[in-house]
Amino acid sequence: MNSVTAIARTDIADAIHSRTLWGATGLMTVLVAISWVGLSANLVEQADTPLLTAIDSFGLWVPLVAIVLGYEAVIGERESGRIRFHLGLPSTRRELIVGKYLSRVSVLVTALVVSTGVLVVLVFVRVDEIPLVPLLSAVILLALYGLAWIGMAVGVSSVVSSKTRAVAAVVGLYALFGPLWGQIVLPACTRFVQLLTGTTQSVDFARLTYADGPTWFLYVARLSPLEAFDAARYYIRDLLEIALMGGRTTAAHGPNLFGLAVLLCWAIVPVALGVWFFDRVDLE
Amino acid sequence: MAAIETNGVSKRFDETHAVRDVDLTVESGEVFGFLGPNGAGKSTTINMLLDFVRPTTGAISILGVDPQEQPRVVRRRTGVLPEGYAFYDRLPGRRHVELAIDMYESDDDPIAILDRVGLTGDEDTAVGTYSKGMRQRLALGIALVDDPDLLILDEPSSGLDPNGIRTLREIVREEADYGTTVFLSSHVLDQVEAVCDRVAIMNDGTLLTVDTVDGLRDTLDPNSTLVLSVDAVPDSAPQRLAELDRVDGVDVDSASEDHGGTISITCTDSGVKSAAIGRVEEAGATVTDIGVEDSSLEELFAAYTDSSSDGERR
């Protein structure tokens, strides 16, 4: 564990010196501030809705920032030769990946917390109150979401043989889970199920919404971290509200908990697979 | 227990056999030179010792441990100066040494380490501004952290100026005096010749020979040339010398107006030298200077690696 934290601390020091940390923090702060200012222009008294919408804008940016932070975490070390410096010291390949992962996650979480902090100040100035539950739930969910994307990027980084391929792979993942997911992947898998089950019900699945789809659809859709994040926004707020103040939610627990589990899996499984693969590769 | 032991280690990359059936034993406490031209398979062999690359077949033991099974245990007791390494360009040299000290869980003083390799005054400068030689010094310093039992130095002299090479030699000798085993590779011979107890020569993926520097010289080319400066070369000298058993050839450069002559005598055994000098003096010459030319390791090495790639040995 000592090696993991030593590697992570050095990598964070490098992120500070290279201004990566400042860049990520500044970018996210500016984006969310712009979003909030635009949304709160016509605010009457309830801050919740525009605030949540402002936080939603993170949903688009977090994956991109996470990808930039994570894609070269391992392959970059291999290409530069820095991996030889690291692995000449008492450590293992697994510790190197985990150390890099922790470092990149720390940078992202710092950027998230700082930019959310700025958002809190802006909200307070505008409405003179801080909606604690929505903010807290947003930070928790965003951190989990960021972890999922960094997990994917670091996993890819451990498996590919060049930085160029890493870029191609992470861009491919973003395209798959973003635009392609709703347009092609979900309709295709719906048609496939229709074919298997011989159902004659003709719903236009390309424009299917959660409400009128079959139950399994709610699960399949959430396999994409983008969808899982989108679907969990209100659910996680409800959960936090229940935990802090009691009450109940009308949301279905099954697909929503599944969505959170999916995010957790994306945060862990790609890195684990990356470690497994990287342990078996020749580092020339 | 041997510090390094490989048994029948081979490495194949797709179609090419980078390393073929290498058996190597480096005894504890010795300074061992690993020689060969670039592309000979030295780096692949060292990469296998460090578990950067896995052997296709064969077994490796470093300080009694398989580096593939227990890389951390091996790295804990080994100091490594790898080839083709890179640092964090934006972080200072001291930060790198501190990381190493952290990883070894050592209580070494980073400044003392940097002083030892001659980086005094550059501790807090970003490594990105270091010259190649300074980086190499830093890498050497990092290898020395926590007083390792085994030092593996891959081309340690590359990028070093003559001063750096002197520092390197001093450090290798000091470490060897403390009982550290040193394994160093090079394609430049004079450094190895100066510090190593034994030498292995590798070419084309195969280990050609393992021997002491002197033993290597004897095996490869036992001849040494005696060069005598004389006031004048007597006509009978070549004849008289050729009568000696262990003289292989005589080469004469006759005297002229402005310089005396020289007689070069190739001896197959150094014991014949005094007899040869005697013969020249009997012939009537006055010997003004005596020189001996041993074949340099560089020539021997070239001869060895050339002949092996031609498929014929001397």
TrEMBL record, chain A:
The keyword Transmembrane applies. It comes from Natrialba asiatica (strain ATCC 700177 / DSM 12278 / JCM 9576 / FERM P-10747 / NBRC 102637 / 172P1). This is Copper ABC transporter permease. The keyword Secreted does not apply. The chain crosses the membrane at residues 21-39, 51-74, 101-125, 131-154, 166-186, 257-278. Keywords: Membrane, Transmembrane, Transmembrane helix. GO terms for cellular component: plasma membrane. One of its GO terms (molecular function) is ABC-type transporter activity. Pfam families: ABC2_membrane_2.
UniProtKB/TrEMBL annotation, chain B:
SUPFAM superfamilies: P-loop containing nucleoside triphosphate hydrolases (SSF52540). Belongs to the ABC transporter superfamily. PROSITE patterns: ABC_TRANSPORTER_1, ABC_TRANSPORTER_2. Keywords: ATP-binding, Nucleotide-binding, Transport. The keyword Ubl conjugation does not apply. It holds the Pfam family ABC_tran. This is Copper ABC transporter ATP-binding protein. Residues 4-229 form the ABC transporter domain. InterPro entries: AAA+_ATPase, ABC_transporter-like_ATP-bd, ABC_transporter-like_CS, P-loop_NTPase.
